[in-house]
Design a protein that fits this description.
Blueprint (H helix, E strand, L loop, with lengths): L3 E5 L5 E5 L1 H7 L2 H22 L5 H6 L11 E8 L4 E6 L18 E8 L26 E9 L5 E7 L1 H4 L6 H10 L9 H13 L1 H22 L15 E6 L2 H8 L1
Parallel strand pairs: 2-8
Antiparallel strand pairs: 1-2, 3-4, 4-5, 5-6, 6-7, 7-8
Length: about 260
């Protein structure tokens, strides 16, 4: 595994920052070629939108009447019924002393990506958290969060991150299962926006090596936090509001393209 740098923020939220350059340097040539192919597709989606002075962010925001903090865009999310892949875009207010949320510097908002229950394999089982009750599990609401994609106001990707369970209300799965879900993620239709769907799908493919490492570090953050902060057998780390972003990796699309070409 790549060496990760641990960071404690001023509000005591712990996350692990992953070294993208180290991951990239260790990739075999065939994986670099696959990454480049997907990066070029992301770049093409951005290029086409720029011809009408749009970006990935302004394009997705066309599908809401009014952009408000926390509000999902589009309102009912984007879902591919064949692959069970799902995503939406939203933004948080800037962090302050009263806020329990994090927003990275320069971030306008972010995509949250998921896989729904219908797309999960038989061997992919929910983690046995204290409060998970399989009998009460609603398959129609059952989702696993894969990765967050941070964006700046110009419509460029700035980073990838993982979150604690309470952030999206997901069902928690072990990293190895979520990695397998990430490999299957794809939104293969044109609604509501073909360029955005193409961009998000190829982002997941291009940065799969980073996503894998982020998910591994996500679970390590949970384990280390439990060791340091557990208050007893009834402690539920997945609902601890002090722990939000679990791992993060800064991303620059153009710089990555320059390195690979």
């Amino acid at each position: 595994m790549q060496q990760a740098q641990k960071n404690l923020t001023l509000n005591d939220k712990m996350s692990i920052e992953v070294d993208f350059e180290a991951i990239l340097s260790d990739l075999p040539s065939d994986e670099k070629e696959a990454m480049l192919d997907s990066l070029m597709m992301m770049n093409e989606a951005q290029r086409v939108l720029s011809n009408t002075k749009h970006s990935i962010v302004t394009e997705i925001l066309r599908f809401t009447d009014r952009f408000e903090f926390w509000k999902h865009v589009p309102p009912k999310d984007v879902l591919d019924g064949n692959t069970a892949s799902q995503f939406y875009y939203h933004a948080h207010p800037e962090a302050n002393d009263q806020s329990a949320t994090q927003r990275h510097d320069g971030e306008h908002g972010h995509f949250h990506t998921f896989l729904r229950k219908s797309g999960m394999l038989e061997n992919e089982k929910p983690y046995a958290a204290l409060d998970y009750d399989a009998a009460q599990d609603d398959p129609k609401k059952h989702t696993c969060h894969i990765i967050g994609i941070a964006m700046d106001k110009a419509g460029n990707i700035t980073g990838l991150f993982t979150t604690n369970r309470w952030v999206t209300g997901e069902i928690w799965y072990k990293a190895e299962d979520v990695i397998a879900m990430a490999e299957r993620f794809e939104v293969d239709h044109a609604q509501p926006s073909w360029p955005v769907n193409l961009w998000v799908s190829n982002c997941m493919k291009a940065f799969l090596p980073v996503i894998k490492e982020l998910l591994i570090q996500r679970d390590e953050t949970i384990a280390e936090w439990c060791e340091a902060h557990s208050t007893g057998d009834d402690y539920n780390v997945f609902e601890d509001r002090r722990l939000e972003v679990l791992s993060y990796c800064p991303i620059n699309l153009q710089t990555t393209l320059d390195v690979l070409t």
